[in-house]
């Protein structure tokens, strides 16, 4: 009795080898697909013009937009230092300062006092000043 056909043996060996290769390749492919991409953004911060910080958000890990601060909204108390920088950043009571010609105060006004959004402009010397209207 013949149990094994010599013509089938090479075909069977080739099929077994091909099957093992397909199984190994499929396993590798599906395991590679399951490797997850990093799900978090880098812990970096961007300092905004108003001094606050924002982090990275979203699927592209882009920086969140900076909050719009009062100077960008057109609210100004007319306070500039000698370098032209805004002194008031809407954080409470203002110091007294000289108003430049393009400030919120009318031309000819010397000193401004007040809180942001509610500037009071005064003309004259300290102790002898009078309140004058401010430009809005």
What is the number of strand segments? 7
State the shape: rod-shaped
Q: What order do the SSEs take from the amino end to the carboxyl end, as H and E? A: HEEEEEEE
**Tally of alpha and pi helices:** 1
Poorly predicted parts: 69-111, 113-117
Strand order of the largest sheet: 4-5-6-7
Oligomer: single chain
Biggest beta sheet summary: 4 strands, antiparallel
Helix content: 10-25%
Structural class: alpha+beta
Query: What portion of residues belong to β-strands?
Result: 15-25%
Q: How many domains? A: 2
Rg from C-alpha positions? 37 Å
Mean pLDDT: 64
Transmembrane segments: 12-31
Keywords: Membrane, Transmembrane, Transmembrane helix
What does this entry show, briefly?
The protein is 19% helix and 19% strand.
Could you explain the architecture of this structure?
The protein is of the alpha+beta class and 136 residues long. The chain folds into two domains: 31 residues, no CATH class; 69 residues, no CATH class. 19% of the residues lie in helices and 19% in strands. The strands form two sheets. It has a four-stranded antiparallel sheet, with no helix packed on it. Strand 5 and strand 6 form a beta hairpin. 12% of the residues are buried. About 35% of the residues have low confidence.
